[in-house]
Amino acid sequence: MTTFDISVPGQASQEAPSAARILCDAYGRRGSAAIRIGERADAIALPGSFGAQVVSHLVRWMFTPVILRYPVPHGRWIFLTQPVTPASDLEEDEFVCARRLSPGAELVLPPGTVDGSPVKWVLAPDGEAPLPPWQAVLNAMRSAV
Fold it and tell me: Could you tell me the superkingdom of the organism this chain comes from (predicted)?
């Protein structure tokens, strides 16, 4: 498995991460590719039914979400975001159905598999668009409830 580490240790950047470009490059490769959640990108897992509502708000607000569909557990959607800031962190009990992926977690990219089931794009990356800010996804979640 090829792993793409999208963190840059010791380097702070004010620019939006180029993770969408890295994902586009990885998508075209053969074999199993993965990204590691790090300093330049974060991820949040939601049930697909709730994720669809969140997407509608993000698109309305002119963000370009990048979303993976993981087969386990129960068809979760994984939203890739810009890094979490201390002021934008998800309150643990705010959304029972949401889960922030831990830094260092590896996400398998399509056409990879998890436990024998395929990982798919819900919304594939646009190489020119930055990942949406964590706070935008969190606000879309709040608006969807």
Answer: Bacteria
Q: Residue 3: which residues within 8 A CB-CB, separation 6 or more? A: 33, 34, 35, 36, 106
Q: Is residue 125 part of a domain?
A: yes
Cα 39 → chain centroid: 13
| Tally of domains within the chain | 1
The reply to whether 51 falls in a domain is yes
Over the stretch 85-127, which tens digit does the pLDDT of each residue have?
766 555 655 667 888 888 888 888 888 888 888 999 999 887 7
More confident residue, 63 or 6: 63
This prediction has a pTM of 0.78
The continuous run of DSSP H or E covering 107 comes out as strand 106-109
Q: Which residues constitute the domain of residue 98?
A: 2-6+16-144
The enclosing H or E element of 24 equals helix 19-27
pLDDT per position as a tens digit, 21-38: 656 555 555 455 888 887
Q: Rounded distance, CA 136 to CA 141, Å? A: 9
Q: Which residues contact 127 (CB under 8 A, 6 or more apart)?
A: 20, 21, 24
77: in domain:
yes
